[in-house]
User: What shape does this take?
Amino acid sequence: MLDDELNKVNQFYKSKESEFVERGEMLNKQLQILHDLKRILSDRRHLTATCALSRSTSSIARSSDFSEEQSESPRNSSETEEVIAALEKNGVKFVNSSKSSKKEKIKVAMRIDIPATTPTKTISAVTSMLWEDLVNNPKKVRGGGEYINKKKIQCAEKMIRGAFVELYRGLGFLKTYSSLNMKAFTKILKKFDKVSNQKASASYLKVVKTSHFISSDKVVRLMDEVESLFTHHFANNDRKRAMKFLRPQHQKDSHMVTFFVGLFTGTFVTLFSIYAILAHLSGMFTASTQASYMETVYPIFSMFALLSLHLFVYGCNLFAWKSSRINYMFIFEFQASNALNYRDAFLICTCLMTGVVGAMVLHLILLSTDLASFAPHRLDFIPALLFLSFLLLLVCPFNILYRPTRYCFLRVIRNIVCSPFYKVLMVDFFMADQLTSQIPLLRHIESAACYFTAGSFKTHRYETCKSGKLYRELVYVISFAPYYWRAMQCARRWFDECNVDHLANLGKYVSAMVAAGARLTYARQPSSPLWMGIVLVTSVVATVYQLYWDFVKDWGLFNPRSKNLWLRDDLILKKRPIYYASIAFNFCLRVLWVETVMRFNNIGMFESRLIDFLLASLEVIRRGHWNYYRLENEHLNNVGKFRAVKRVPLPFRDMDSDA
Assistant: This one.
């Protein structure tokens, strides 16, 4: 039996070793092509500059220096010809040689595959594809080529650098795999000797040590070669700089972060208790004062409360993923040196809520005293300043307060808003799913922005925004926007991957948009039985669609042939009842839209806003609960397919391979 395990380890090691060796040879060839093309471009620029200089000095008397420049020109031209000849030996064909006009661009009979990750690249790729398919003659395209310029070379260099980093990481994993299996065999044999009172481990250890996964040194030699090439070509022979890319250092946990989490948590609880006592004593939620106070305070502070709750839930997700050994760093493609851990998420959450509740206490104290009697609208600047401070902190350019995380968040939001034009990564559509659960937060931002920009805080006329036609129409836009962004991401993924499942996923978000629009219209016409029927039909269809996608596609459950009844074969959590309880929990929170149909009568504004906030909070909690199982399923798929490193596409490809 131990022989079977040894053969299994050897076969897996051989297959991965040959895969990495082949990948290394391809990267070496790509790097050589890149180096030669950069040299050709440099020589062409030098020749162009020399010709321009000769034309500018033609009217001046010829000197000895000019004759030297004329002698250098043929030398550079001959060097360029040698590089082109070397490239042609490697299979790179040139449509126009360097002997042609010096103003002519370099054109090679090969394709440079630059991923359409940005809007300009996406539009360029689509127009190029349409031009080739609709306008160009296929015979002419076959004999054509692609122009080489500095921008394409820079993109290709970035792709090759990323491929070398992933290759080095994969080689490190394979080396760790070898050492761990050697240690495992050693411990197994020692345990066998101890139990059987024999000394058979020495002879078998010799067999293990002569096995391929121990005796082969291809991985070590390839790692040394990658280090040397990367240091020379991408780090200007600076090994320390190269190692920052190849072996990024992980963040060290700090006890100060844990201390401040506890400090801010205690401060938040104390301030919130003070706020509740002051609100009760001042009668702030009585019928006479609750309207003005709720219209001023509720949108801003509930927005921060929902954001803090989502951060707290995300911190719980990070802790659960780390405890379950789910490789979320690889799934989200986070950098190990600056990724947010669960302690940091809790620190941001508690710090934010402490500041928000502190502002609420200050605002309430000033409202309850005579200081606000002469100009009550001035106190409304406190929520506005809080919101403005948060935005300024989010875009702060100084390297303080988690700047890499803040800028990563802004980049992801940019990718989501412009989702049809940016390549969709896992972190992009994962964040877009979070936004679909934060529609109340987006509507609070709209209310606060209208209240302060329209000048309503000066007159305390709260109906100015709500009665406006533009405001009412923007409610539909904001409610549709997260679903629209997510649908556009599905369309882009279908365009990139040609997978029909993405179109089916797009239909789910379209049905959610229809249901959201029907509920908004019904809220304005609550006495209409027609709209009530439309709400019921559209919401039921959207809910069934969403539940099916949650359980079957996102979580990978409800497999009738699974060894775990109606679950899946591989489970990270050992207790199966947890999964059944999670299914029931997700189902219950998915049908909370019923509250919009069951209109509660005889309740005040405070109770109504409290119910809205509780429902929004439950949706955030449901999303955090969904997050864990979504990444668990993704992690198990990666493990089943032995995916531990990214497969970076290579830029240079022969045009004959397009077929």
Confidence is low (pLDDT under 50) at residues 61-73, 97-103, 137-143. The beta strands are 94-96, 107-108, 110-112, 146-147, 652-654. Residues 497 and 561 are 28 Å apart (CA to CA). The chain is about 75% helix and 0% strand.
